[in-house]
Write a structure and sequence with these properties.
The protein is about 60% helix and about 15% strand. With about 800 residues, the chain is of the alpha/beta class. It folds into five domains: about 5-120 and about 235-245, no CATH class; about 250-330, no CATH class; about 335-435, Beta-Lactamase (2-Layer Sandwich); about 515-675, Heat Shock Protein 90 (2-Layer Sandwich); about 700-820, Rossmann fold (3-Layer(aba) Sandwich). The strands form four sheets. A five-stranded antiparallel β-sheet has the order 2-1-5-4-3. A five-stranded mixed β-sheet has the order 7-9-10-12-11, covered by helices on one side. The relative contact order is 0.05. It catalyses: ATP + protein L-histidine = ADP + protein N-phospho-L-histidine. Its main location: membrane. It holds the Pfam family Response_reg. GO terms for molecular function: phosphorelay sensor kinase activity.
Length: about 800
């Protein structure tokens, strides 16, 4: 059975306590016996003293009046009895014979008391008889003197009696009684001595009684003496016995105390020696463990000194060393696996640790060197150093640019507080160069979006200006005879208006506000048309090569916009090489992009059609390469560019979920790579069936636009087509007219942007009055309306300004025919 440390300590101290307690009990028992012995001896001595006093008192009885001594004698006897009883109660350990003799002490004391009282009474009687005899002697002398001739005789007789009495009392011998009888005869001879004889006889009788009493007194005295001697004999025997036993017990007790004291002292030394050795072994083990931890020599397996708590504590220390090693390995693994360069610096700015990423960044393990020297190549502390703040136990962050690495880092410094109160700092270098570039691109995108929104607003106003020009020119062309000078002039006005309209479309394309239908197309066909067109316009001294993958899969795109992308890129390439008759190379291939293959790109992994346009021009200056996609940014001379070409390309590709990358080396040409996602083979091109519609009609149309010139122009267009047109320049007035008679109109044509009530708001209110009324919205630009959401509030058609008469005629006729489910009138 394994004892715990607490049980061992408890057992140790219990043993010491038991030994000490046993020693104390033994000593107490011995001392108690010795004390009882002393008390018993004292009681016996008091008993003997009391007996001795009784013996001495008996001598005084013969020389004084004993009548008053009976009660004091009895009290003394009672005291002796009490001492005797006390002796009996304290005689443990003596033999039975002695105890039996002691047991008779009270009885002997009773005998002693009886004999003593009787002796006192006889002594008192003896004294009384002596006094009576003295009186009788006097009477007898007086009687003798009265006898004739008896004076002399009487004196002699008195002397003889007195001598006889002295012999009787002093010798206590009755052998002289015959002489007393002779004296009686002599008295008879005196004659008339009857009274004297009678006195003498009485005197002689008293002497005989007195003698008998004397014998009894002697007998009682002898009994009392022997009884007292017996008391002394018995008590002396007991004293001798208990003294011998006590002496032996005292010696044994002394030896036992000495032995047990020595044993206790020895056991204490042994126990404390074992305890000291036991705990010293544990302390030494713990010192080894602490030293191993200080020296970093862990994990370790210290031997278990025992199977108790100390052994468990040693095992716990071993387990703790493994946990510490595991924690340190985990920490080092984490630090080593960090892609961000990190190091730990001491309060003296000495590098204590560098992770592999930091070693790679610095080019060596600079542990032990000054941080500012090893990492930044400085001779003094860095100007942005956060060391003082870290020493105040405050974490800190800072962005710096490292000229040595050419990167921007976000430095995160954290305090590492040691047990001694010193503070090291842990520094993590987070490379945020990529984030900075992304922030710049985001800012660029936001700037382009803002410019796009501005361009959309400008396009709306510009479309309103172009609409009357283009519309009126179209009407004049119908009115004027072909070939006339006026017809040619109006035709030039019409062409200029159309070119302005195309410019507006470019602006809307750039701002992603245009409404364009995407269909599956083959880029090969578009590139073939573009190459044919550009070859005819670019001088023959400029070499154009092409490498077109004929089986490149289709992409989902708007053909005109992709045509514009290719034209813009090839035109830019021509402008780059026209001065030194360089070369333009156009390539189309299918490629696959993996995750992370294109840095700073939003493209998802997958298959893409890659259109590359390269030139051998001077390249692009690195200082401006980040600005080439900005609207209206150009390095071309005046008249050769508007600054919208690449901006439009960027906007088109963004709308097509594609991307464009530029690679240029100053002095060695430029390459633009355009990526367009390839559609799955299962997808088929949407076939839009066009059916001929009649352009004319006779229906009633409600026309609404806040611009008077536009209302007048649109009314002329519609009336030439045969329609009956009612116009309003206020959407509120148009609503009231419609509310008065909703069935008066077959179609509503409304502008989108109008004060107080916009076109979509008007459409909702009109359809609330008459749900089946067909509505066409005309707009130059609006974020609130497109082809997908116009049907949500009853709009059946959408016309983009500036509106061409033929487009309006086709849209009006198509909407009316769908509404009536009929054909041409």
């Amino acid at each position: 059975m394994t004892l715990s440390l607490s049980k061992k300590v408890l057992l140790l101290f219990s043993s010491l306590t038991a030994i000490t307690l046993l020693l104390g009990v033994t000593a107490f028992s011995g001392l108690k016996k010795y004390s009882n012995y002393l008390v018993l001896v004292t009681v016996i001595k008091d008993f003997q003293l009391s007996t001795e006093r009784l013996k001495a008192e008996q001598i005084q009885w013969f020389h004084s009046d004993t009548g008053a001594k009976v009660e004091p004698f009895r009290e003394k006897i009672e005291k002796s009895k009490t001492l005797g009883v006390k002796i009996l109660s304290m005689t443990g350990g003596i033999d039975q014979k002695q105890y039996a003799r002691l047991l008779k002490l009270p009885l002997y004391l009773d005998y002693y008391q009886t004999a003593g009282v009787e002796l006192l009474k006889r002594l008192s009687a003896d004294h009384e008889m002596l006094n009576d005899n003295i009186a009788l002697m006097k009477n007898m002398q007086d009687g003798c003197r009265q006898l004739p001739n008896g004076v002399g005789k009487c004196i002699d007789l008195s002397n003889l009696v007195l001598a006889f009495q002295n012999r009787i009392y002093h010798n206590r011998n009755l052998s002289a009684l015959p002489e007393l009888k002779e004296i009686r005869q002599a008295v008879q001879d005196l004659g008339d001595s009857h009274a004297v004889l009678e006195t003498l006889d009485q005197y002689i009788g008293n002497l005989e009684k007195n003698y008998q009493n004397y014998l009894a007194i002697q007998d009682r005295r002898t009994f009392l003496r022997k009884t007292a001697d017996h008391f002394f004999e018995v008590t002396d025997d007991v004293l001798s016995t208990i003294s011998e036993k006590n002496r032996n017990s005292s010696d044994l007790l002394l030896y036992l105390i000495v032995f047990m004291g020595g044993a206790a002292f020895g056991m204490n030394l042994l126990f404390w020696g074992l305890a000291q050795k036991y705990f010293d072994r544990f302390i030494q083990t713990q010192k080894k463990a602490i030293q191993a931890v200080k020296e970093g020599k862990y994990p370790f397996d210290l031997p278990r000194p025992s199977d108790d708590e100390i052994g468990e504590l040693t095992s716990a220390m071993n387990a703790l060393s493994y946990s510490l090693a595991e924690s340190e390995n985990r920490y080092l693994t984490i630090m080593a696996s960090m892609k961000s360069p990190s190091y730990i610096c001491s309060p003296e700015m000495t590098i204590e640790y560098m992770n592999p990423a930091m070693i790679d960044m610095v080019g060596r393990d600079a542990t032990g060197e000054r941080c500012y020297e090893a990492i930044h190549g400085l001779k003094t502390k860095c100007s942005w150093c956060m060391h003082d703040k870290i020493q105040s136990r405050i974490s800190a962050e800072k962005e710096i640019f490292s000229p040595q690495q050419g990167k921007t880092y976000k430095i995160i410094s954290s305090p590492l507080i040691h047990k001694d109160g010193t503070i090291s700092k842990m520094i993590v270098y987070d490379d945020i160069t990529h984030l900075k570039e992304m922030d710049a691109r985001l800012a660029q995108a936001q700037k382009m979006e803002s410019i796009g929104n501005l361009a959309g607003g400008i396009a709306h106003d510009f479309n309103n200006l172009l609409f009357p020009i283009v519309g009126m020119a179209e009407l004049l062309l119908e009115d004027l005879p072909p070939g006339s000078a006026e017809h040619e002039k109006i035709e030039e006005i019409y062409k200029a208006g159309k070119r302005g309209s195309e410019l507006v479309n470019q602006i809307l394309t750039f701002s992603r506000q245009s409404e364009q239908k995407k269909i599956p197309i083959h880029l090969q066909q578009i590139l073939r048309e573009v190459m044919k067109l550009t070859r005819s316009t670019i001088p023959s001294n400029i070499q154009i090569t092409q490498d077109i993958q004929q089986d490149c899969p289709m992409v989902l795109a708007h053909p005109t916009q992709i045509h514009q992308v290719a034209m813009n890129l090839i035109t830019n390439a021509y402008h780059a090489v026209e001065r030194k008759s360089g070369k333009i190379d156009v390539r189309l291939t299918e490629t696959r992009i993996e995750a992370g293959e294109l840095p700073d790109s939003i493209l998802a992994p997958g298959r893409y059609a890659l259109l590359s346009v390269s030139d051998t021009g001077d390249g692009i200056n690195p200082a401006i390469i980040d600005k080439i996609f900005d609207p209206y940014f150009t390095t071309k001379e005046q008249g050769k560019g508007t600054g919208l070409g690449l901006a439009v390309v960027f906007g088109i590709l963004k709308e097509h979920l594609g991307d464009i990358k530029v690679y240029s080396e100053w002095g060695n040409g430029t390459t633009f790579n355009v990526y367009l996602p390839i559609i799955a083979k299962s997808e088929k091109a949407e076939i839009i069936e066009q059916k001929d519609v009649c352009s004319n009609g006779n229906e009633r149309i409600l026309l609404v636009d806040d611009e008077t010139s536009i209302v007048r122009l649109e009314k002329q267009m519609l009336e030439r087509l045969g329609y009956t047109v009612t116009t309003f320049t206020s959407s509120a007035e148009a609503l009231e007219a419609f509310r008065t008679n909703p069935r008066l109109f077959d179609l509503v044509v409304s502008d989108m942007t109008m004060p107080k009530m916009t076109g979509d708001q008007l459409a909702r209110k009109l359809t609330a009055l008459r749900p089946d009324i067909p509505i066409i919205i005309c707009t130059g630009f609006s974020e609130r309306i497109n082809q997908e959401n116009v049907t949500a509030f009853g709009v059946k058609g959408l016309l983009m300004k500036p509106i061409v008469k033929s487009e309006m005629a086709k849209m009006v006729r198509t909407v009316l025919d769908k509404a009536s489910q009929g054909g041409c009138p």
